[in-house]
Amino acid sequence: MAVDPKHLLGAFLTLSMFGMLANMIKKDHFDSVETQLPQLSAVQFEVMKIEEHKVAKVPRVSKGPWNKVSQDLKPCWKRPGARLTEEAETSSGYVTFSLTNGPEFHIAQVADAVVVAKYLGATLVIPDIRGSKLGDKRNFADIYDTEKFVKSLEGVVKTMKEQPAEIAAGKLAVVKIPNRATEDYIAEHVEPLFRAKGNIRLVSFFPSVNMKRSETEKEADSVACLAMFGTLELQKEVTETVDSMLARLRTLSRRSDGQFVAVDLRIDILQGKGCKKSGMKGKSCYSPEEIAVFLEKIGFDRETTIYVTEPRWHESLEALKDKFPKTYTKESIVPADKKEKFLNIESLLLEKILDFHICSQSDVFVPAISGLFYANVAGRRIASGRGNILVPSQIEGFSAPAANFVSSYISKKNHMAYSCFCDQ
């Protein structure tokens, strides 16, 4: 059968058209993928860049002069000999005393009593603890670890946990001694009375509220160093409460890598007569508003967590909270099940204990009030290598380096703790 050439031509043209259409469809499909995918990828990439840019602008850590002041120190004193002198072994005399006022006094009172008992070869009776109010009396073990105290003094002085019956009923000769009394002073003013009476009761007084070392304290006194830095440890419940408060403060300080500032600021003292300008040396006390301005000007930002030693929230603290919203007193930091015991308005002793140890272990310590609390917190911080103590000042201008305000106890190494701890 003959094939019509027209039919062949039509079939060829039809097949060609289908082929062209298929190619067009195929090309259009891949071109769309090839052109759309890069566009989509580019959009996604730009979005990612924008998001990364936003994240980069969110500060992960709050700003502040957290740089630690280098304090790589080691004890430069050796523990006194492990054996008591023959005189101490045979001595029948006792030295008694009480811990009074607060932990900043306790350290000094223990040191005085241990040094005197060691010099006299007397037995040291473990003290009771007395608050500022009449009748506020506690056992040593209510606050401190008795076994640690006794063990730390083994071979140095004899100790007795209870006051002997033979002197409990009788009157003791009371001897007042200046804090950090020298051996010459003890020999002249204390020893004669001890030899005459056999037993004495020591009462320390404080001619000065600073702890600068004198020329006679350049070398370490091993007994005094041991007494100040190796005898007093908190008993278990108090230690656990302090640790819980520290953990809470560090949790609240996540934006500053767990670091916080402790400020010793008590309104009752600020309102007293002692808080006034002291000649050319400037102020001895700073208000909440002044502390807020100081912290801001040396570089701390609003995210900084601040612990204040004021016992209860006071309206004047609002000036500090306005600039630093994360400002707390112990009311909101003490564990709920410990508040009844530790926030007892009838006795502020436990509150002072908490404050002292929080300030001793904070990342930065700012003493708004000069005095023995500041001085002995500084001593504890030196002993533990925490040299970041910033003393407030009224700063001219908008800002100043925090390094300009490091405590002279640290910058000049003139605290008596540097007689016990040295660069090695």
Question: Radius of gyration, Cα only, in angstroms?
Answer: 35 Å
Strand order of the largest sheet: 7-4-2-9-8
Number of strands: 14
Compute the number of helices.
Answer: 15
Helix content: 40-55%
Main sheet specs: 5 strands, parallel
Average pLDDT over all residues: 82
The helix-strand sequence is HEHEEHEEEHEHEHEHHEHHEHEHHEHHE
InterPro entries: FucosylTrfase_pln, GDP-Fuc_O-FucTrfase
Keywords: Carbohydrate metabolism, Fucose metabolism, Glycosyltransferase, Signal, Transferase
GO molecular function, one term: glycosyltransferase activity
Family: Belongs to the glycosyltransferase GT106 family.
Overview of the molecule:
The protein is 42% helix and 12% strand. By secondary structure, the protein is α/β, with parallel strands linked by helices. The protein has a 5-stranded parallel sheet, with helices on one face. The protein has a 4-stranded parallel sheet with strand order 12-11-10-13. Mean pLDDT is 82; it is low at 18-60.
Provide a concise account of the structure shown.
The chain contains 15 helices and 14 strands. The protein has 424 residues and is α/β, with parallel strands linked by helices. It is globular.
